[in-house]
Amino acid sequence: MTAPLLDDPPLRPPGEDGGLRQTFRNRYLLRLLVRRELRARYKGSLLGLGWSYVRPAVTFSVYFSVVGVFLGMGKQIEDFPVYLFSGMVLVNLFTETLHSTTRSVTGNAPLVNKVFLPRELFPTASALVSLVHFLPGMVILLGGAAAAGWRPSPAALAAAALGFSIIVVLGLGLGLACAAVNVFFRDLEQVIDISVIVITWSVPMIYPWTHVREHAPGWVLDAYLANPLVSAVSLFQRAFWPPATGDDFTLPPDLYARAGLSLGVSVLVFLAGHALFARMQRRFAQEL
Amino acid sequence: MTPSIVIDDVTKHFTLRHARSIKEMSVRALRGERLSDRFRALDGVSLTIDRGETVALMGLNGSGKSTLLKLISGVMRPDEGRVLVRGRVAGLIDVGAGLHPELTGRENVRLNGAILGMTRPEIERKFDAIVEFSGIGRFLDDQVKFYSSGMFMRLAFSIAAHTEPDVFLIDEVLAVGDPPFRERCLERIRELRGQGRTMVVVAHDIQMLIGLCDRGITMRQGRVAFDGPTAEAGALVRADRQARRAAAALPDGSSSQIPKST
């Protein structure tokens, strides 16, 4: 039952083979970790994974009835439910990624300081769990968009892919950085939770971007449009919201140029977050 | 002999923070107390362990045994000096760290096996052996949180004992479990030893270590105080224990020679 020790591996420092590459090479463990996190999240609940539908459904209903109906946004924006929901699935993906990756290393403290594993496994698994939660929302969005008269086209799919890439790359990059920093300053968890509120309202998801242009000074609009999340959300609306293909002012100007730039910035953020994580993880075990 | 673990003049410091929040920090600062203390957990430790050796690491609490084990496993990095290891390291360092209470025994075997470095085919191949050894039997599909602590430990040990690494680290795990299971654990460790694996064992049961290991290392305040026959290393630890007990009995607190229990 045993493998004899015939080969002669070299002497080397333990704990060196970490990093994201090693994380993805270890796909089996990553999958088990994702399953464990899903199981732990819904432990002992009757609805189980069903809760991942309830949460966005409630958020959606609140925004739709208050902003769409009471505040009259539904009259200003055609197909407001599709507009709202196409932004919401993406924003939820981003905020959930950020929320759970930030806690991923501290939440696995017993493992991190007992067994050597590539530590990138934990934030990566958390980000993948967010993607699992993103899928049902995506299915509902496609159904809603189709009901509103949406038909798939290459341009729509390209816009969706670009918006999705910005969110995933930026989310994982920021998530890696936050996970590492949170080991040393637990305050970050609170900061992230609060910034989720800001993120929700700083993208054109509940209101159109034109309101910023009309009611705020020019530099605010410039800053607003420079936000990669704004580009990503607009791209998703371009992809799934039928009126977006119509007149010129429904979507921000130079959307694709901004989006390309946003993707570039996201990649840089990702590289920086990855490097920061790799540096700081050496001191994780003694800090936890 | 081929060296399996090389520890070359390794020093490790820890910073013990007394205050974490701004409030605590300002209170301590006003009182003139220290915000943090730095202490040396390991102080210029050098060791070479050859392949196939079974080494007992002994010493009082806080003497640096567990820190040394963590450096060998790669969980921590040395501040100075270097640690080199040949081949795959796995360990029974506080078993159960990888077991998740919400998962069933079956799922935990797979998850913990993968955490300890086994590949999927390897786990499937050894699955039955692991379950058989642990004696979990019909509880395999129950959530681990309903297990008794004995069952929990048995499952954890069983998974780790089937990982077959080149270097096997064992920390304080043989102290638990009922006597028959403990006997089986020791048997399994002897079996692994017979296959030429390198083992480093930390335990407080000196008698058991003497029976199991060919070499004993006694640690004292982060230094290697003795390296040689297990029986002699054990005798030194017993002497240390008595000295500490005697110091604790004295009212003037002259225990500065002996590290405090952590």
TrEMBL record, chain A:
Keywords: Cell membrane, Membrane, Transmembrane, Transmembrane helix, Transport. Residues 29-239 form the ABC-2 type transporter transmembrane domain. One of its GO terms (biological process) is lipopolysaccharide transport. One of its GO terms (cellular component) is plasma membrane. It holds the Pfam family ABC2_membrane. It is a multi-pass membrane protein. It is found in: Cell inner membrane. The chain crosses the membrane at residues 53-73, 80-101, 121-143, 155-185, 191-207, 219-236, 256-278. One of its GO terms (molecular function) is ABC-type transporter activity. PANTHER family: INNER MEMBRANE TRANSPORT PERMEASE, TRANSPORT PERMEASE PROTEIN. Belongs to the ABC-2 integral membrane protein family. This is ABC transporter permease.
